[in-house]
Amino acid sequence: MTKGASMLQVAVLGLLLAGGLTIPYVATAQPAAVTVSAAPGAFPLIRGGRPARIEADVTDYPGVLRAVQDLRGDLASLSGGAATREAPVVIIGTIGKSAAIDALIAAGKLDVSGVRGQWDGFVQQVVEDPRPGLKQALVIAGADKRGTIYGAYDLSERAGVSPWSWWADAPVIRRAEVFIAPGANVQKPRVRYRGIFLNDENPALYGWANKTFGGFNHAFYERVYELTLRLKGNYLWPAMWGKALYDDDPLSAPLADEMGVILGTSHHEPMMRAHVEWERYGQGRWDYAKNPQVLREFWRAGVERMGANESLVTVGMRGDGD
Q1: What torsion, rounded to 10 degrees, do the Cα atoms 16, 22, 28, 32 define?
Q2: Cα-atom radius of gyration of the chain, to the nearest Å?
Q3: Is 126 exposed, middle or buried (0-12, 13-18, 19+ CB in 10 A)?
Q4: How far apart are CA 90 and CA 98, in angstroms?
Q5: What residues pair up with 123 in beta bridges, in sequence order?
Q6: Residue 11 pLDDT > 80, yes or no?
Q7: How far is it, in rounded angstroms, from Cα 254 to Cα 267?
Q8: Whole-angstrom Cα distance, residue 228 to residue 255?
Q9: How far is 118 from 145, CA to CA, in rounded Å?
């Protein structure tokens, strides 16, 4: 392993690498399938070792623009080349946040009926004559911020870049030709919250995080957030053995919200307060029958600190330290 954690540390994330390294190319009859053959009407994502050019509206969400930049890097790694001004165009944006996407919808060229208003939904569609002077484009439109992010990462994965390319050093196999079949690929989740719990993170992940990032700080969590999103997750219970995401690094929580990850706290950490924060700041006993006022103030501070960040609040109280 050169960059990411060992497989033991990856396992701590609560997810398993499965399916080997096979790139999921499928028959071109499937709408928006990824293929190595230039079938009629297919969009050239990579042609002659050169990737398509990615366009996004600067007014879109910062998390979307992050994912767009990641997709550019992924396609460069996959193709071994750089996009040119004459390259085919991929247009990415969120409905209501991207002028280009909204214009395609208004013109009747992009069908978003299957995703509009759908939590975390997106559509990938090959569009003919999307604007004057452009004969064809691959369009990725999200119903919301995460939908757009998933649409970008899904294209990257289906083209051949594993979500585990950083964490598990999954190799990226060069491809000189990659095409997207005509039609539309619509995706939306069946489960509303899907994510990771960093539990029992000592000693393996703890030692590696300290050596690599200097601790469980926002630089570490940036990688965890990205992995979560590449796997189409949206939710995180952060490391909790003597750690407090909000308290340890004030940049970690805002970064989660920017990137599109919903934060929560584990089964015995109510109201967005980490267990160790009671040890750091609490007074008296962890017993609501005997210490209600102090506990209410402690919990109120957790919710106030959470602010407008997208969050899922645990409300159940359990024993001190579970």
Answers
A1: 40
A2: 22
A3: buried
A4: 14
A5: 141, 186
A6: no
A7: 22
A8: 13
A9: 11
For 272, counting Cβ atoms within 10 Å of its Cβ (0-12 exposed, 13-18 middle, 19+ buried), the class is: buried
CATH topology of domain 195-306: TIM Barrel (3.20.20)
- C-alpha 243/C-alpha 97 separation (Å) is 36
**Mean pLDDT to the nearest integer, 10-15:** 38
Task: Determine the Cα angle at 99 with ends 95 and 104, to 5°.
Answer: 75
- 3-state DSSP call for residue 8? helix
> Same fold for the domain at 19-187 and the one at 195-306?
no
Model-level pTM?
0.91
Strand partners, 295: none
Angle between helices 145-159 and 218-230 (to 10 degrees): 70
State the average pLDDT for the chain. Answer: 91
What pLDDT is stored for residue 5 in this prediction? 44
For CA atoms 192, 61, 218, 251, the dihedral sign is: negative
Over residues 202-224, the mean pLDDT reads 96
Percent of the chain at pLDDT exceeding 90:
87
Q: Are strands 195-197 and 134-142 parallel, antiparallel or unpaired?
A: unpaired
| Structural class in CATH, domain 19-187 | alpha beta
Q: How many residues does the chain have?
A: 322
46 has which bridge partners? 51, 178
Per domain, the residue ranges of the chain are 19-187, 195-306
Strands in the chain per DSSP E: 34-35, 43-47, 50-51, 53-56, 89-94, 122-131, 134-142, 178-180, 184-187, 195-197, 235-237, 262-263
The closest of 68, 62, 60, 121 to 257, measured between CA atoms, is: 62
Tens of pLDDT, residue by residue over 217-253, are 999 999 999 999 999 999 999 999 999 999 999 999 9
* Collapsed DSSP state (helix, strand, coil) of residue 55: strand
Q: Report the amino acid identity of residue 128.
A: E
Q: What angle do CA 55, 56, 60 make, to 5 degrees?
A: 180
